Amino acid sequence: MIPVRRRCLLLASFVAASALLPAQSDPASRATGSTEPVVSPVPAVPAVPVMPAVPAVPAAPTAAGALALQAASVEVARAAMSSIVTVRAFVRGLTTAAGSRDDRGELDGWGASDYNADYSGFGFSGALSGFVVAPNGDVLTCLHALRKPDGSFVDLIDIETKDGVRTIAEIVAAEPTVNLAIVRPVVAPQGRTAAFTVARFGDSDALRTGDLVFGVGDPAGPEKYFALGTFVSRPTRDCYQEMLSAFYLQAALVVPSEAYGGPLLNLAGEVVGVLSPRRPKPGVAASEPRTGLELALPSKIVVGLYDSLKQARSVRSPWLGFAIMSREELATTRGIDAFNAMAKPRHGVLIESVFKPSPAALADVRPGDFLVFFDGLGVFAPVDFQRYMYIAGIGKKVKLELFRNGETIVREVTIEARPEAAAPK
User: In the prediction, which pLDDT does 99 show?
Assistant: First the structure.
């Protein structure tokens, strides 16, 4: 007989060994007497879904990066301020608050701010900023503060350069519709000749949303203006015949009224626009609410206008009565497939709309026509049409070669001054 203790040990060993064997054995193995254990199949493990890659988090700004940006900003300011000028306007016999005097004829309060004392018989009416664009001292600025409330020009203009030299200037040409003027120095009453530093133009079409830009100006008096902002959007139209607001750059910054006319600069210090108020009135400082979104006339338009205006020496807006659209704008607006399917000439711009009454409407120029030649000169972009019209001038009869439904037609029109009723919206 097996002792009880040993029987318990044997039973425990048997239970432990049984736990290592499969619950069932293959019938074939029982038949053959095989002792190889049969492993039950392991259920498939569900595939783990692959998570999309997480984009890398931009590195946090470092002190070195901030200092590099600051250094770039300082360099832009250093280079740009030498080309910025103050443009002041005066009206004969005008009395302003700054000219208030006591019984002895002396200035009340802080008399040093009396701009009326600079030119006897003239009163200070307003100021703007501007920038030099040619070695002869030509300055681009806004027009609104250089006009009286009745729309006529002020009686005297001067410009003040960074070195403090003031020079009497004249309006060479202007484009009232886009509030742009060319002012040229003519007389240096202080007996000193101003030193002019010419600003550099950049490509306004190269700007991207989020690019850093700088607004620069030189208001009257000791104030200076230099502000960092961001570029928001490019114009949606290259033509300012109908929708004026669609013709400007947009930038996120705030501009004081006397800084209008100054340049909008890119990070390279190049002029990419002229800071402009939204709805200026002649003889009145820009006073619309500051929303933090400012407009600027694009440099690609400014360069073309400057070249045309100084040649034409015009101060009125020439007008035919139609709005045009570039081929790029047309493809964007209607879609590339529709654009490719259109019947169109090898070059030219689309006439988008026609104002009635107008010289164009009278000559049967229609929306949907393509303007191919202007008085024998090829039209490839809106700026070509604008330049040709300014150089031709108001009162000139010109021939327009049009493409309509696959055919070429010619119409004669006479350039007129833009009427008030046709002012862009």
Answer: 43
